[in-house]
Amino acid sequence: MANGGGSGGPWRGDGGRVQLSVRVPPALRDAARRRAEVVGVPLRDFIQQAIEVAVAQPPVAPEEVRDLRARLADALDAGEYANYVASIDDADLADP
Length: 96
Known about the structure:
It is a single chain. By secondary structure, this protein is mainly alpha-helical. Helix content is 54%, strand content 0%.
């Protein structure tokens, strides 16, 4: 992602750049900065890639997210995940 690179996309090669100014909570900015440091890219490049990924994803309605979270919580509460994990027969995935 050097030099403002990124994962690419249909907007690559359209010539110029524009400035996007967004106000976010300090905690979000700090978390983005930490994550950029961990992956070893400048914050500017990290933010650009995050926007590219977000734009490339299909839109998800808030009610779909709530429904998915509720179904996941129900499955966890019912022990389905624990049962699934217990059924895995792979030494590499077993707890030490």
